[in-house]
Each structure stands twice: as structure tokens, then as C-alpha cells.
Amino acid sequence: MENKISWGIIGCGDVAELKSGPAFQKCENSQLLAVMRRDYNLAKDFATRHRVALYYDNADQLLENPDINAIYVATPPSTHLYYALKALQAGKNVYVEKPMVLSENEALQLQNEVNNSPNMLVVAHYRRFLPMYIKVKELLNQHIIGPIKFVDLKFLKPHNFKDKAGWRLDAEVSGGGYFHDIAPHQIDLMTHFFGDFQLVKGIAINQSKLSKVDDTVNGIIHFKNKVQFRGIWSFSIPKYLEEDSCTIYGEMGTLSFSFYEETLKLNTNSENQVFNFKNPKHIQQPLIQETVNYFLGKRNNPCDVKVGVTVTSIMEQFTKNT
Predict the structure, then answer these.
(1) What's the CATH fold of domain 5-125+283-300?
(2) Can you give the pTM of this predicted structure?
């Protein structure tokens, strides 16, 4: 068994700058040895600024390095499957960005590869390991608000809420717009909290025609434990109507939070509490540490390929009836 995980990053763009990249050097029993980007100068720039010894503009060269035993796939989603398969076939463990892949068919293909490989794969649904969501899970397990009835999610943003839209508005690269970039984390949390689903329905439309991708998605989930979920995502709302909210309704109260804030509200007949949290500087570091521990045989998989298949399936059900 290895006693240290030596990483190579394929795709050292914006996500790797702060959210994830530095964490590979800060986690215990972990080191970042090499990065790859198609633009050699940009790869060199990232490596120089983050004190990474090796940099490439060719993924095959990185994968051939015998000192690297784990790969972080941080490219745009259209190449996640390609690089994850290559890494597994090269004998490396894999940590892959969300959305795991573009379609349920790709998800099943990757699952089959993982199931038949001696190597391991973790999906980067890092919010599971952030303080606020750990607390939500704890309160749900304690039945503080009683049996859960339903969940109401609203994520409403203007068309240009992200300055660097880029590939996110190219369906062939992203899978279908901002929804495919934002929703994987949110849907993953719902499955993390409430388990397997029994039925999924949804519809996606392009209301604004400001781009070529759907900007509004409406979805419902019937979980096997009878919890009901309804979510609306819109990326063509006037700025004054912006909303980021999720409320979990139980028989004895509610839990409410926003996905881009760090405050959780508990309301019951007997108490009203507000919990404030602070996320780590490198927001993926807690999950990366658990991934390192998993690769070293110290724990079970913190977010396995089956999770990625489930989230991909739900997203596809939400958006296929365009």
C-alpha cells in the first residue's frame, strides 16, 4: 500500500487556482507533482506560482510519469470521461470534477470501467464535507424537525451572473448551460440527505433566447423514503429578483439555507436558531483529504462513481423533455 498520494492535475484552470489546486499540497500524506494544460505557457505559469515541479502540455506525458499515482481531472465536462478512462487505464486513481460526465450513458460507461479496474475514483461533490452541510445532515439524523415532508429549492440568477461564462454556455462542452455547472452539487446534497429516488420528472426551456442553451429548469424528485423535492433554476431573471434558497420542511419545523452563504436557520415551534459557519480557504480541501485517506486504504469512498451516476441520471431526467 502506498503511504503518500502523488498527484497530477489535468486541466489547471480557474477551479484549480483556489478551490482545489493548493489543497493537494496542504493535505496530509499528499503532494502535487505535476500539472497539465494544453497551453504550455499557462501550465508553466500555474506550476511556477504554485511551486509545482513538473508541467506539461500533453496529458499522455503526465500519465506516463511513474511517480504520479493519482490524477485530478479538472478539464471542462466534455473531456471528463476521456481523461478519467485514460487515467484508470494508466493505473492511476482518479478524482474527477463535477459534473462527472455529460450523460447517463457516459456515467454508466465510467462506472463499468471503475467496477472492472483495480484503481479507484472519487467524484468532487465537495459540499458534502463543508461545515454547514455536515450540520444539516446531523440535524436531519437527529430528527430535530421531525419526519421530512418535502424540500423547496430556488436558484434564480441573471443571465450574466458569472463574468466568465465561456464554455458553460456551450452545450457540447458543458452539457447544457449554467444548470449543468451549478446543479450537480445541489442535487448531490439532496441524494446525500434523502437517499435513493423512485421517480424523477422535469422540463427545461430556453425562455430568454440570450444564448443557445436552456436557461430555466424545473424538476421534481420522489424519493423512496417518500420525501418530495421540487426545484427551479433560472438564469434569466432580473437582478432584483435573484434568489438562492433551499428549505427542508419537516412535521415539526424547517431548515433553511442558501448555497452561496454560510448560514443555516432552524425554525420549530419551540426554538429558532441561526448557525454560522466558515468554509475553508481551499473549499475542496476537506473532500480531497478524505479522498487521499480513501486512496491510502484508511476509509471507504467518500463520493463514489455510483453517486455520479445518480446525479447525472437526475439531471438528464430534468432536462430531456425540452
Answers:
(1) Rossmann fold (3.40.50)
(2) 0.96
